[in-house]
Amino acid sequence: MAQLKNFPLPDVGEGLTEAEILNWRIGPGDAVELNQIIVEIETAKASVELPCPYAGTISELLAEPGQTVEVGTPILTIEPAGAESDEPAPDKPAEQGERSEQGGKIGEEGADGRIATLVGYGPRSTSAKRRPRKKDATAGQRGSGSGGVNGSTGQRPATNGTPVTSGAGTDSASTNGTAVNGSAPATSTPSASRQAEPAAVGGTGEAAGGGVPLAKPPVRKLAKDLGVELRSLHGSGSGGVITRQDVERAAAGGVTAATSEGSAAGTRSARDSAEREHRVPIKGVRKATAQAMVDSAFTAPHVTEFLTIDVTPMMEFRERLKKHPDFRDVKVTPLAIASKAMCLAAKRTPDVNAAWDGEAGEIVYKDYVHLGVAAATERGLVVPKVRDADGMSLRELAVALEELTSTAREGRTSPEAMTNGTITITNVGVFGVDTGTPILNPGESAILAFGAIREMPWVVDGQVVPRQVCQLALSFDHRVVDGQQGSRFLADVGALLSDPGMALTFQ
C-alpha cells in the first residue's frame, strides 16, 4: 500500500510548546499542493496559517478544531503524490545467531525487527518482554502443595519487616520469629484481612471508624458551592460514595440539606450564582499574557512615577502637520508623537532601554530601540514591536504604528513581530483612562502609560485658562533604573510633549 506521511505541528515561534487548532482549510480525501495553506492555528502569541510541506492527498485529520496540540504531535496524515505501492517482501529465513545487516526502507520494518527512520535505527516493532508478576500474597493458595509463593508454606516475605501468610497455608513458617527486616512475625488469615479492609457503613457515604464522607474532590466542591452538608447524605455510588447526582438532588430539595431558613436561603443563593456563571479555558494569548505578567511582577522590582503635563502645544503642532504636504496622507496621532518623544528621551537616558541579565550578571545596554506598542485585540493583549524606531522620522514612525496596530487588531501579527522588544508604550487614553501603573514586559526595563487628553483648567502666566492636559505614568525596573534616571526620562518625554520645539535641543 502507499506510504503515508505524518505532518507534526511545527514550532512557529520562539519557545512555543503548544498551539490550538482554529480551523482546517482541507478535509480527508482532498488533494493539496506543496505549500498550500491547510490549517489555521493560534499560539500564545498570534494566529498563524500553516502550509502543507507535501503535495498529495489528505488521508486523515488527527486533531479537531478547538483542540490544543503540543509541538511535534502529528496533526494529519497525507499520501504524497506519486507514492508507489510497496508489495510486502517475502520473509527470508536467517541463520541462527546471525544478525541481518540490511535495513528496510524508511518507515518499514527491517530484518532485525527495527523500523527504519531518516536518522538512527528507530524502535522495534515488538514490545519488550516483561518478567511475569508474582501472585498477590493476600490471595492465598487455592489448594495445598507447592503452588504457593514460597513453596508449601504459602508464605510470601514482606518487605516492610512483616511476613504475610496466605489463607490455608499457615504453618510453622509464620511463627519462626523472624521476618525480612528482622521485625516481629505476624500472621494473616482471610477473615483477618477482610476485617482490616475499609468498608462503607450502611451506605451512608462515611468511612468505617470515622465521620468523613466518601466523595471525590469535584463533588465536595459542588456541595460547598451549593451549601449541601455531605454528612447528611446517603451515597448512591459504589461502596457508599456520594455522587454529583446525590448532591444535586439534595440541593433541589430531594434531601434536606439544611434545617434553618437562613441555610436554605444560602443554598438557593449559591445555586442561583452557579447557574449564572460560565467558565472559559485559560489558553492562547490570555495564558501567555498571564504568565508573562506574573513573571515580571514577581521578578523585577517595579517603581512607577507620574507626571501631569499641558499638551496644548503638541495638539497645535499636530494640527499644523495635517496641512503640511509631507503629512497630508499620514495620520499623525498623539501616540505617534509620544512614541517619537520616547525614542529621543531614551538616547539621553539609555538605562531605560537596557535589560537585566541575571544569569550572566550583566546589564545589557542596547544601542537600538525596538518599541513595543500594546494593542487590545479580540484575542487579548498583544505587544508587537516597531523595529529600530529610533532611526525613523516622525512620518515613518506614524506609518509604522498605523500598520502595526491594524495588523494586530485583525489577528495577523506574526510571532516574530512580538519578540525582542526594548521598551514599551501603552495608550490607555483611548479607553478614556487618565493613568495607571503598567507592568513591565519581561526582558524590558521601562514602560510608559499614555493617558487621555482632556480639557482642564490650567494656570498660564498667573491666569487659569482651559488647556489640553494629559497624564503620563512610567514604570521601570529598579534593578536597572535608579529614581534619578527614571525621573529624568519621564521629565524629558513630558518636556517634548509640552513643547515639541524642545526636540531641537536634544542630542
Automatic annotation (TrEMBL):
<keyword id="KW-0450">Lipoyl</keyword>
<feature type="compositionally biased region" description="Gly residues">
    <location>
        <begin position="142"/>
        <end position="151"/>
    </location>
</feature>
<feature type="domain" description="Peripheral subunit-binding (PSBD)">
    <location>
        <begin position="214"/>
        <end position="251"/>
    </location>
</feature>
<keyword id="KW-0670">Pyruvate</keyword>
<dbReference type="InterPro" id="IPR000089">
    <property type="entry name" value="Biotin_lipoyl"/>
</dbReference>
<feature type="compositionally biased region" description="Low complexity">
    <location>
        <begin position="254"/>
        <end position="268"/>
    </location>
</feature>
<dbReference type="GO" id="GO:0031405">
    <property type="term" value="F:lipoic acid binding"/>
</dbReference>
<dbReference type="Pfam" id="PF02817">
    <property type="entry name" value="E3_binding"/>
</dbReference>
<dbReference type="InterPro" id="IPR050743">
    <property type="entry name" value="2-oxoacid_DH_E2_comp"/>
</dbReference>
<feature type="compositionally biased region" description="Basic and acidic residues">
    <location>
        <begin position="269"/>
        <end position="279"/>
    </location>
</feature>
<dbReference type="GO" id="GO:0016407">
    <property type="term" value="F:acetyltransferase activity"/>
</dbReference>
<comment type="similarity">
    <text>Belongs to the 2-oxoacid dehydrogenase family.</text>
</comment>
<dbReference type="GO" id="GO:0005737">
    <property type="term" value="C:cytoplasm"/>
</dbReference>
<dbReference type="InterPro" id="IPR011053">
    <property type="entry name" value="Single_hybrid_motif"/>
</dbReference>
<feature type="compositionally biased region" description="Basic and acidic residues">
    <location>
        <begin position="89"/>
        <end position="112"/>
    </location>
</feature>
<keyword id="KW-0012">Acyltransferase</keyword>
<feature type="compositionally biased region" description="Polar residues">
    <location>
        <begin position="155"/>
        <end position="181"/>
    </location>
</feature>
<dbReference type="InterPro" id="IPR036625">
    <property type="entry name" value="E3-bd_dom_sf"/>
</dbReference>
<feature type="compositionally biased region" description="Gly residues">
    <location>
        <begin position="202"/>
        <end position="212"/>
    </location>
</feature>
<feature type="compositionally biased region" description="Low complexity">
    <location>
        <begin position="183"/>
        <end position="201"/>
    </location>
</feature>
<protein>
    <recommendedName>
        <fullName>Dihydrolipoamide acetyltransferase component of pyruvate dehydrogenase complex</fullName>
        <ecNumber>2.3.1.-</ecNumber>
    </recommendedName>
</protein>
<dbReference type="InterPro" id="IPR003016">
    <property type="entry name" value="2-oxoA_DH_lipoyl-BS"/>
</dbReference>
<feature type="region of interest" description="Disordered">
    <location>
        <begin position="80"/>
        <end position="217"/>
    </location>
</feature>
<feature type="region of interest" description="Disordered">
    <location>
        <begin position="254"/>
        <end position="279"/>
    </location>
</feature>
<feature type="domain" description="Lipoyl-binding">
    <location>
        <begin position="4"/>
        <end position="79"/>
    </location>
</feature>
<dbReference type="InterPro" id="IPR001078">
    <property type="entry name" value="2-oxoacid_DH_actylTfrase"/>
</dbReference>
<dbReference type="InterPro" id="IPR023213">
    <property type="entry name" value="CAT-like_dom_sf"/>
</dbReference>
<keyword id="KW-0808">Transferase</keyword>
<dbReference type="InterPro" id="IPR004167">
    <property type="entry name" value="PSBD"/>
</dbReference>
<dbReference type="Pfam" id="PF00364">
    <property type="entry name" value="Biotin_lipoyl"/>
</dbReference>
<dbReference type="Pfam" id="PF00198">
    <property type="entry name" value="2-oxoacid_dh"/>
</dbReference>
